[in-house]
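Handoff note, outgoing to incoming analyst
You'll be picking up this chain. Sequence as last confirmed:
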Amino acid sequence: MAKVKSLADLKKMKEKLQSDISLRENSKHPEGMVRVKVAMATCGIASGAKDVMEFFTVNLQKRNVDAIVTQTGCMGYCYAEPTVEVKLPGQEPVVYGFVDIKKADEIIEKYIKQGEPVDGIIPVNYETIDKK
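Most recent structure output, in case you need it:
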């Protein structure tokens, strides 16, 4: 974090933090927005989830993507951390595993902006178990 040397620096920092908070939490119509959830349990944080969350927060805003970025606890995919759930408006959520900064960038550019699936989707397998 940068050192605060003046009142102007403090005001600039305040504006940036308020902007980040609004991107993460404030929305009147979340169902019409892209929603990104980053798993931030201990295993996710240890695997780099904080950097991934910051990347999504900053870069979705820079690229003018109307999105909400939040954190969540464990999604149950500890082996694939950092994990990120992305929900496009009107679609089912998709969970990506092993998300680093490069993969996060690809998710934004290909999946979020163009709707093209990106490698790394964790399949939903609990619905495929036959009950006999």
